[in-house]
Write the structure tokens for this entry.
Amino acid sequence: MTAADVLQILVYLVLLAGAASLLGGYLARVLAGERVLPDRLLGPVERLIYRACGIDAAHEQHWLAYAASLLAFNLVSVLALYALLRLQHLLPLNPQMLGPVAPDLAFNTAVSFVTNTNWQAYGGETTLSHLSQMAGLTVQNFASAATGMAVAAALMRSFVRRSARTVGHFHVDLVRSTLYVLLPLALLMAVVLVWQGVPQNIDANITADTLEGGRQIIAQGPVASQVSIKQLGTNGGGFFNVNSAHPLENPTPLANFIEMLAILLIPAAFVHAFGRMAGDARQGRAIL
């Protein structure tokens, strides 16, 4: 290992530790329902979601009701994603005219992505339409990550509350995790990845003539938006078959560094958030 290798690792650890500490404090405030910096912009959107879905944000749930809400949400998500994959040949944003995903593969993919397992038993660029990638897998990369964050929040509340019959509200935790944490971070990261050369469009594949006289098909599509939440949500399921080993998902050393930083950022921030919620930051640092 060279001095440059050691320096790169040290820079990574320092940036991860600093960013996780800052995000941990912010995350604790988000999960506590406190006002945060984006509240002026996102607060009306949050309240609109609650009204549209009939959610009483002030009401907390017993852990059984919390678990039931989680399971119901995941069941609906599995059915919706399965239907989308099976019907993609009838839906728009399918420039390659790809057919429906096979029933067994569609079921496996739907269950896998909803449960944050993200087992990729398919070639993304040869199997899924742009709509399936965006409205299916990318949406579930957000939803499954937010579901995991909600469960972690409920678990932390059960530890830090001395006597309580409730652990929060699943849908409130889901909405706030998505709206105030995952969406802003994913948007920022997607913009940086586009700057680094990751595609973000809804165009058909490109056929290029190679220097050797052959022809090569170059897949493209809404890649940056999917890669950003794939990394931030610790999901699998990249746009391409080989995920971030593909040069269009991970084109530069800086993009690679950012993607590695993103995949540990929220997990590391959560232990800091636990320390803040417990009223003793040392507990978070000890777990970290």
Summary: The first helix runs from residue 3 to 31. The longest strand covers residues 206-209. The chain has a mean pLDDT of 94. Strands lie at 206-209, 215-218.
